[in-house]
Amino acid sequence: MLRWLRGFVLPTAACQDAEPSTRYETLFQVLDRNGDGVVDIGELQEGLKNLGIPLGQDAEEKIFTTGDVNKDGKLDFEEFMKYLKDHEKKMKLAFKSLDKNNDGKIEASEIVQSLQTLGLTISEKQAELILQSIDADGTMTVDWTEWRDYFLFNPATDIEEIIRFWKHSTGIDIGDSLTIPDEFTEDEKKSGQWWRQLLAGGIAGAVSRTSTAPLDRLKIMMQVHGSKSDKMNIFGGFRQMVKEGGIRSLWRGNGTNVIKIAPETAVKFWAYEQYKKLLTEEGQKVGTFERFISGSMAGATAQTFIYPMEVMKTRLAVGKTGQYSGIYNCAKKILKHEGVGAFYKGYVPNLLGIIPYAGIDLAVYELLKSYWLDNFAKDSVNPGVVVLLGCGALSSTCGQLASYPLALVRTRMQAQAMLEGSPQLNMVGLFRRIISKEGIPGLYRGITPNFMKVLPAQN
């Protein structure tokens, strides 16, 4: 985009003294494809796309909504010029906030320093990769002209939105945890963009969980019944489930697993925002530590809210064909025979498992991604889908290794009322029983199918 603006549409822009109106008029003529003196949203989107500057529908609509002062659904030249002038002023302020030594150029060290003041940490190598995406003359510094032309059609209004743009467009790690809800700007919250992103994530989660449901049910079966037979393996477990209930039984309990996505995501997002406010003073930047604590607490809050559904998912997965006719029937029988307390069996080990999993998952992910960027990235700050999936899978695996014994004990506590002759033990009692009868390996029963679903579950 930058080279196109400077080399084709804005041949005079290379000169710092070029008249802004001349540059704006050239741009307007290019976008006004039918030459009627106004640009509608379709022309703006098509024009930017054809010129190799596709920003995405939301960004283009934001430009149009902000610039269309008289709300007639079109941008005339005066509105177009006013929008770009106002936008340049905002970009000038952002440029000056990054130019720490006031020499008219942004260097890698200044990007690192500026992000550190916002509580975000990146390496100088990563900062250099950001500069390369903006730098038009190969000097490894960015002057005002390069900065202005690069962000000319980016609707970011301040340095925080620019940093968020770097995060989403380049994939660079700026300290946000993958295990916590993403943060949204005030404009995204007001426009409804936040719930569209959450909805898209929920749909992706439903597809992901459904595709890995057979492995998830096999894991639960091995966790609960592994102590009865050391011979249960992946092939034997699948064969046993199909023999008992047919192919459809492989997805038993998945309905509950999918249904709980919406309330879990909504509560997690709401709680995350509330904990951030509690941990930071008004106007204070949210750092990595605050994000991690807020994310862990939000996860615990969401789990508290939807935990009864976790218990029902386990009961449905372990139950035999015909034992429960559905989610409602399962809940009714648990309440009738065991009382309300049964819906929170295994809650303590579940809660304890959130912290080591979230912490290790985040730490390993950041370590792997930073290592790749520092040692293998050449001309891009985007590691690519394969690298990101690999980092996510390995970090999730490490997190699961640390928290899996707690997850296994949680599952057995959820299901032990269904096992005939099984004593109703608490968390400590179950740990002791498993170690005495099965040894340390007993704490990791079912971990193989759990690992098998890690990569396809990355979404």
UniProtKB/TrEMBL annotation:
Q: What is this protein called?
A: Mitochondrial adenyl nucleotide antiporter SLC25A24
A GO cellular component term found in this entry reads: mitochondrial inner membrane
Family of this protein: Belongs to the mitochondrial carrier (TC 2.A.29) family.
Against Pfam families, the record matches this protein to: EF-hand_7, Mito_carr
Keyword set for this entry?
Antiport, Calcium, Membrane, Metal-binding, Mitochondrion, Mitochondrion inner membrane, Repeat, Transmembrane, Transmembrane helix, Transport
Catalytic activity line of the entry:
3'-AMP(in) + ADP(out) + H(+)(out) = 3'-AMP(out) + ADP(in) + H(+)(in); Mg(2+)(in) + ADP(out) + ATP(in) + H(+)(out) = Mg(2+)(out) + ADP(in) + ATP(out) + H(+)(in); phosphate(in) + ATP(out) + 2 H(+)(out) = phosphate(out) + ATP(in) + 2 H(+)(in); dADP(in) + ADP(out) = dADP(out) + ADP(in)
Summarize subunit and interaction data from the UniProt record for this chain.
Monomer.
Gene3D superfamilies listed in its UniProt record: EF-hand (1.10.238.10), Mitochondrial carrier domain (1.50.40.10)
Where, if anywhere, are coiled coils annotated? none
Q: List locations, semicolon-separated.
A: Mitochondrion inner membrane
**Which GO MF terms are attached to this record?**
ATP:phosphate antiporter activity; calcium ion binding
Functional description taken from the UniProt entry: Electroneutral antiporter that mediates the transport of adenyl nucleotides through the inner mitochondrial membrane. Originally identified as an ATP-magnesium/inorganic phosphate antiporter, it also acts as a broad specificity adenyl nucleotide antiporter. By regulating the mitochondrial matrix adenyl nucleotide pool could adapt to changing cellular energetic demands and indirectly regulate adenyl nucleotide-dependent metabolic pathways. In vitro, a low activity is also observed with guanyl and pyrimidine nucleotides.
Q: Where is the EF-hand domain?
A: 19-54, 86-121, 122-157
